[in-house]
Amino acid sequence: MYVTIFLGTIEQGLLWSIMVLGLYMTFRVLDYADLTVDGSFALGAAVAARLIFGGHDPWTATLLAIVAGAVAGMITGILHTQFRIAPLLSGILSMIALYSINLRIMGKANISLLRLDTVMSKITAIGVPEQWAVLVIGVLVAVLAVVILWLFLNTEMGFAMRATGDNAQMIRSLGVNTNRIKIIGLSLSNALVALSGALVAQYQSFADVGMGIGTIVVGLASVIIGEVLFGTKSIMRTLIAVVLGSLVYRIVVAVVLQLGLNPTDLRLFTALIVTVALASPILKGKVQSWVASGKGEKSA
What we know:
Blueprint: H1 2-29, H2 37-53, H3 58-81, H4 87-106, E1 110-112, H5 119-125, H6 130-153, H7 156-166, H8 168-173, H9 178-204, E2 206-208, H10 215-230, H11 235-258, H12 266-299
Antiparallel strand pairs: 1-2
Helix pairs in contact: 1-6, 1-9, 1-10, 1-11, 2-3, 2-4, 2-9, 3-4, 3-9, 5-6, 6-11, 7-9, 10-11, 10-12
Membrane topology: Multi-pass membrane protein
Protein name: ABC transporter permease
Main location: membrane
């Protein structure tokens, strides 16, 4: 039983890590608090589920989910850059609009994908054992996403995007169009988030209009856990740390649930993890100061 639980936890961690990578692009690279992810995650699930339910190829459905996510991110970017709406508010507006859009796409609050073809069943059809299909998909997509982001962030546009997040005014003085950079970054981020939503929907065999609620909190927890535990000395190391952070978060959640935590308290537990992780540098400094003052008193 425990092996099955562990395998399922790793599978979920890998599929959700795509979303975490997307959130990393806005939260860390662009320094942009983008709440669109709560809507674009469900958007990816809605588009993929609706197309699969209608008999379309799951690979095509997943690809179109990525495109839909990119469009959602682009709209958020346009709201911010062209209409001067604050980053937080532009994301909230997109997130609210996407709730209704997702309902329109699905036609109802949820869609079941039981006994329908998904990317997992397609992988099984080429010879991969059924119990390993999700793991294979998760590993392949996570590795591909990490490599693509690493290559992108080391291009001229990638450097410009990182510089935009660090000091937008400075990079504008060098003639870089930061508005275009932000729109591209938000589109890329939400494309990854929508991809994650599409894969998660196919993994759990249903899409629900509310499945994106709290996505940003889960993503932040995973990003921060990964950075704290595995370090950020290079771009590649940071991207890998983000993926591992998603796995660690899922393992921690699974262990806590096994110990008896009420599932309804899971959001509270996640919020506490994020709070502790964000406060860890300050807490660490206070502890070091306390230890140093204690040693000083003893030596006196």
